[in-house]
Amino acid sequence: MPLFLNTHINKVDRKGRVSVPASFRAALAAQSAVAIVAFPSFRAPAIEVVDRQRMEQFSDSADQYAQFSDTHDDLSLAIFSNAEELAFDGEGRVMLPQSLADHAHITTLAAFVGLGRTFQIWSPETFERHKQSASARVREQGLSLMLRRNTEGGGS
Amino acid sequence: MPLFLNTHINKVDRKGRVSVPASFRAALAAQSAVAIVAFPSFRAPAIEVVDRQRMEQFSDSADQYAQFSDTHDDLSLAIFSNAEELAFDGEGRVMLPQSLADHAHITTLAAFVGLGRTFQIWSPETFERHKQSASARVREQGLSLMLRRNTEGGGS
DNA sequence: TCAAAACCCATTGACGCCCATATTTTCCCA
DNA sequence: TGGGAAAATATGGGCGTCAATGGGTTTTGA
């Protein structure tokens, strides 16, 4: 299982390419991924990124519910119709499609934000503001939820 | 399970490296850990350190809840986007990233503080002050709270 | 035929890896 | 029990490798 950590800010060059952080690539390589799947977040001006495996999981679970629920129907439309597969070049970069860059207001810099099993791509300034307000909320509400116990059986 | 005890003060060299105390490394080696995960404490100017296993557990539980709860979403952001995996070099040192050193006000000395299952890294002066006020609180309030049994199921 | 994108190569700066030295601890034996 | 050898730990620095970036060239596809 991949583990995406930290925030890396990389340049978007004139051709629209960005280096995916080496540590993220390493996390993906563990499952021999040659590409990633990106789609606009519907909660924020950011790009959601998952590996192909996970996208297929989305697809499976969407299949189960889409026919019964307008919400899921809308959800899968939002995700799949806007998702793009981004392939790595020889140097570990991807082309950032214009539509996604626009959605996230990315021009010359891209912030790769590790979120554990997935990561996001933001404009650095937008992300900084988002992070501030999120951490303010965390301080207000306390940490109890995080300290939830997992079942200690067979950890990976 | 690792057990981190005592406080060790080590130097941060010009390149930003610090030796992790040998006893801490021994505790980690029991699970053949080659790296640790560090992130800024929300509660204090200190660096929280956990092993990778524990981070994977966070990741799993966050994965389940983040999509349904704004609180968990904020928490994942606070933890993962600020967390870094620190790998040991051949001498048992790690690179202390600038952002973490800044958060803890660490410049030339780092205090490794064992807290049982995890440990923290402080600036020695800051930690000294923190310890003073903490022990004052303990004297005032008594130890009953600390000695309470945790409710966790099957700790090893 | 032209534009976009995939491919290839060069540069630079940071980090990982290695070796050298200093300091502390452990352990053995007188 | 004290001294001293040997090992383990902590610290400092040199150097090679790789990640990030930029630019050029070839291929693809409209």
Summarize the structure.
Two copies of one chain form a homodimer. The first copy, chain A, is α+β, with helices and mostly antiparallel strands.
List keywords for this structure.
homodimer, 156 residues, alpha+beta, six-stranded antiparallel sheet, two-stranded antiparallel ribbon, 5 helices, 37% helix, 22% strand, globular, disordered C terminus, DNA-binding
Structure description:
2 copies of one chain form a homodimer. The first copy, chain A, has 156 residues and is of the alpha+beta class. Chain A has helices at 22-29, 52-66, 70-80, 98-103, 124-141; strands at residues 7-11, 17-19, 35-40, 47-50, 84-87, 93-95, 109-114, 119-122. Chain A has a 6-stranded antiparallel sheet. In chain A, a hairpin with a 4-residue loop joins strand 7 and strand 8. In chain A, helix 2 (52-66) packs antiparallel against helix 3 (70-80). The A-B interface holds A 1, 3-7, 23, 113-117, 130-131, 134-135, 137-139, 141, 143, 145-146, 148-152, 155-156 and B 37, 42-43, 52-53, 55-63, 65-66, 69-85, 152-156. Chain A binds a DNA duplex (30 and 30 nucleotides) through residues 10-11, 13-17, 19, 21-22, 87, 89-93, 95.
Look at the structure and give the mean pLDDT of chain A. 84
The helix count of chain A comes to 5
The largest contact between protein chains, plus residue counts on each side, is: A-B, 30 and 38 residues
Rg estimate of chain A, integer Å? 17 Å
Major beta sheet, strand line-up of chain A: 1-7-8-4-3-5
- What is the N-to-C succession of helices and strands of chain A? EEHEEHHEEHEEH
Molecular shape of chain A? globular
